[in-house]
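Need the bound structure for S-adenosylmethionine, inputs here:
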Amino acid sequence: MKGDKSFTKTVIKSGSREFREWNPYRSKPAAAIVNGLKTFPLRKGMKILYLGISFGTTSSFFSDIIGKEGVIYGVEISERCMRDLNQVIGKRKNIVPILADARKPQDYAWIEPVDLVFQDVATNDQSEIIVRNAKQFLKKDGHAMIAIKARSIDVTKNPAIIYKQELEKLKASFRIMERVRLDPYEKDHLFAVMKLLAKR
Ligand SMILES: C[S@@+](CC[C@H](N)C(=O)[O-])C[C@H]1O[C@@H](n2cnc3c(N)ncnc32)[C@H](O)[C@@H]1O
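Answer from helper R.:
Posting the output first, comments after.
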């Protein structure tokens, strides 16, 4: 969004356009791209369900990519984060904040079907949460993206074991298209891009 200098150190101008630098240390999809992710399905006009939107760092970049025709339904459980998010939303017209628990999609069942479910809640049941939400809201050809935080699932286990265990759970409902570790930008995180299996 033109004139927006939030969540970045550098704004590059090119003619009448402006580009905010997307810092991989502050945003997991940016870290995934820097670490070689090839499948990045965000497009202009997309509808996104964002679980764990927090105070809006990553969603501000998604908001720029999808543009005015797109919408982000941003679910967040913390009232404090919601208050900060509202500062970001004040300027942006394509983010709809939803104060809710992503474990209870029935509480926001009014949203429309989406092209992408993005999930970054950092809880020990994050795989179950994305499955439930994708089954309810994701369009047939849509994508799901998850940032798996090993330490939120079990601090005592080797992250590689956690990733394997979580990917096995996800494979019951999704085809895993690509996965990328986020170290050193986000320690002990795995980022995965997926599609729902035909049979749900
Ligand atoms: C790692 S932060 C997300 C950062 C954000 N994705 C970004 O890059 O800008 C995780 C967020 O998920 C939220 N969260 C945790 N459990 C949740 C739940 N069950 N439902 C909705 N939000 C949740 C937390 O309050 C926190 O704001």
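Comments: The chain has one domain: 22-196. The longest helix spans residues 79-91.
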